[in-house]
Amino acid sequence: MSAPDDAAVGNRKGSRRAIAFVLRLREAGVLVFLAALGTLFAVLTNTFLTTQNLTTVASSAAILAIAACAQAVVLLTRNLDVSVGAMMGFAAYLTADFAARHPAIAPWQLVLIPLAIGAALGAINGLLVAYGKVPALIATLGTMSLYRGLTYVYAHGQEVTSSRLPPWMLTSVDARIAGVPLLAAAATAIVVIVWAFLQYFPWGRRIYAVGSNPLAAFYFGLRAERVVLMAYTLCGVLCGAAGLLYAARVGTVTVVLASGWEMSSLAAAVIGGVSVSGGAGSVIGAALGAVVLATIDNGLVLLAVPEFWRMFIQGVAIVAAVAADAAIASGIRASLRTRGAK
Questions:
Q1: Transmembrane residues, as ranges (predicted)?
Q2: What is the spatial distance between Cα 209 and Cα 219, in angstroms, rounded to a whole number?
């Protein structure tokens, strides 16, 4: 390889490292922003810092953190998944219906159902994107409608009421471990497990490699198609877990469960520093982004802000986070090109 080629490769590697470093700083910035939000809402309302309200925020953020984690895994491969909410809803409804028909089922057996359903749905998305070469946005838009439609067909317009679900399914989400909601503890464990997989296991590192530089990954012998398929399958498994917890939390499961969570999960991921350009960011940051969104939503509810404005603020957050990510990446690349030209 010639010297110019070596310099180009070095610049690309340096660019990615610089972007990753800045995104890690953004994760720290999310914590600072979260503290500022908490202070603001504590001043504006008398109930924000109550134990009951903070428990509500933690429970809301817990499920969104898992969905954001699922979205982040796919974003790291330079793709996205807008069928996250539909997968959650489909897995949740089928699991709740099965639990209602078989109330004596053991908890560990029931947990396997949404995970398997999510894995199958995620694998379909992965096959379309990785091997079918369908653009991720188009493929998952199509499957979003497909999965939501299948839920309607299966349900026949009926909902699964809380009175039909096993009692343990409803009470478990309200349980606490050393004062911490079990829901928040479960979400934290899931996020940490996925983070460890991405950081310390070869297949997890391949997700970063493919998203960071697909061409280099190809020359190193990585099968990008397999990695993307695995990422979408993992995304589906996480959506299945989130769907089960969401169903247990709301009690009554309808066919529109988790509608709109596609944008919420995407917003949480990008706010938490996961790059839409792939290869940079972490699921820890995505989870922090979920806490930010849950805090904003809770605080605005306490302030009696209309639903429209809450949606508007979430949209602004998405646009601002994506714009910041693009500006950071562009600035670093320009700086490296200038440095390389000297």
A1: 21-44, 56-75, 82-100, 106-129, 136-155, 175-198, 227-248, 254-276, 283-305, 311-332
A2: 11
The residue range of the domain holding 200 is 33-341
Nearest Cα residue to 336 out of 23, 8, 5:
8
d(CA 154, CA 152): 6
Let me know if residue 240 belongs to a domain.
Answer: yes
pLDDT at 12 over 60: no
Amino acid at position 67, single letter: A
pLDDT (tens digit, 9 = 90+) per residue, 133-175?
999 999 999 999 999 999 999 998 889 998 889 888 888 888 8
In a domain, 1, yes or no: no
Radius of gyration of the chain from its Cα atoms, rounded to whole angstroms:
21
Q: How many domains does the chain have?
A: 1
* Residue 342, token pair as written in the block: 């000297």
Amino acid at 211: G
Enter the pTM of the model.
0.86
* In a domain? residue 72: yes
Question: Is 232 domain-assigned?
Answer: yes
Listed in sequence order, the residues at least 6 apart from 238 whose beta carbon sits closer than 8 Å to its beta carbon are 66, 67, 69, 70, 73, 118, 190, 194
Distance CA 229, CA 121 (A): 11
- 3-class secondary structure per residue, the chain: CCHHHHHHHHHHHHHHHHHHHHHHHHHHHHHHHHHHHHHHHHHHCCCCCCHHHHHHHHHHHHHHHHHHHHHHHHHCCCCCCCCHHHHHHHHHHHHHHHHHHCCCCCHHHHHHHHHHHHHHHHHHHHHHHHHCCCCHHHHHHHHHHHHHHHHHHHHCCCCECHHHCCHHHHHHCCCEECCEEHHHHHHHHHHHHHHHHHHHCHHHHHHHHHHHCHHHHHHCCCCHHHHHHHHHHHHHHHHHHHHHHHHHHHCCECCCCCCCHHHHHHHHHHHCCCCCCCCCCCHHHHHHHHHHHHHHHHHHHHCCCCHHHHHHHHHHHHHHHHHHHHHHHHHHHHHHHHHHHC
Q: What is the CATH number of the domain that holds 212?
A: 1.10.3470
pLDDT of residue 307: 80
